[in-house]
Design a protein that fits this description.
Blueprint lengths: L8 E6 L3 H12 L4 E4 L11 E4 L2 E4 L6 E3 L2 H10 L10 E4 L2 E4 L4 H8 L4 H21 L8 H8 L2 H16 L9 H4 L16 E3 L5 H8 L4 E3 L8 H6 L1 E6 L3 H4 L9 E11 L9 E4 L8 E4 L16 E10 L8 E2 L3 H14 L5 E3 L2 H4 L5 H9 L4
Parallel strand pairs: 1-2, 1-10, 2-9, 6-12, 10-16
Antiparallel strand pairs: 3-4, 5-8, 6-7, 11-14, 11-15, 12-13, 13-14
Helix pairs in contact: 1-13, 2-13, 4-5
The protein binds uridine-5'-diphosphate (UDP).
Amino acid sequence: MLGKLSKHYDYLVVGAGLYGCMAANRIKAAGKTCLIIEKRDKIGGNLLCDDIEGINVHVFGAHIFHTSNKDVWDFVNSIVEFNRYTNCPVANYHGELFNLPFNMNTFYQMWGVITPEEAQKKIEEQRSDFKKILEAEGRTEPANLEEQAMLLVGRDIYEKLIKGYTEKQWGRPCNQLPAFIIRRLPVRLIFDNNYFNDKYQGIPIGGYNRLIDGLVEGVEVMTSTDYFSDREYWNSVADRIVFTGAIDQFFDYKFGYLQYRSVRFETEILDTPNYQGNAVVNYTASEVPFTRVIEHKHFEAFGNEIYENPKTVISREYSAEWQPGMDPYYPINDKRNSDILARYSELAATVPNVIFGGRLAEYRYYDMAPIVEKVLGMKF
Ligand code: UDP
């Protein structure tokens, strides 16, 4: 039995990821009392950074903050100053390098085209076969990710830069995946390797732990504390609950497990100051077992600063099907899971005094900024 807390709170926040910490911050700002409980031994959820050889290592995968919402940007910068990191991933396909997202550099590397007009012509040519198929079938909308890719950039780019990477990442053939996953990838007829279209982008100076610590400053936090170990007790400590855990677990999996993709990281310290010259290199060939290699120092060290540390830390990312007990990462928004989610969501709407929020409770492929935006707009 758990010891009794001496206090009753306005809110209990279950989970100290970004959503939970944002909620706690806003609850405190509203003059209400709040306790956060977190089952891991550290707060921050998947934003957690670990200092290895003086480098902030993104333990649960690379996080790059990007938004076009000035209020969101100003808010996070009021907690910790962000640097000017701009994500420009490079794709390695059988040793050939291509810039991402798909832009004039990529088109030059792929086809040798020099001008936007030449690139446009080449893309049109690449897309035309597939467009004809759609027209013949009387369809206008792509039915899956493969079709979306063929419509967006055509066969060459699909086969070299999308197919292998996507199938490794999601563990499913592209023609069985929803089109929206790659709709966010920009196609540009300019020489611009910035992966995101957003106006503001960066990494907290000193790492994400500073953002998280800043958000929960003055809030009571209990780590290594699992809500599910004694729900009745935890339900009794506050008037309302902000629940950021997995929605299927909240309802005892009564409609079945929601599926996720999980990621395994192989992290290595290397005796070189600069291993790959970039924070993110995607390996897009299906034969390479990992999806990407992250070199963490490049998120926070620029220009000659990278040589101030003679070592570097890299993480190879291996995508895996989630099994109970593993860390869930990406929700799989296929029909099976969407149907199950709809049933849980319907039930969630009937639970009084519980707010379900974040990637696991909403089962949504969330970036960080939309979470900040959403919680900033909530009234506690
Ligand atoms: N993608 C791809 N090739 C790449 C990078 C991304 O085909 O080199 C596709 C892939 O389907 C992936 C999606 O774009 O699932 C979104 O990738 P992103 O890196 O933006 O997602 P993240 O893993 O960062 O959330």
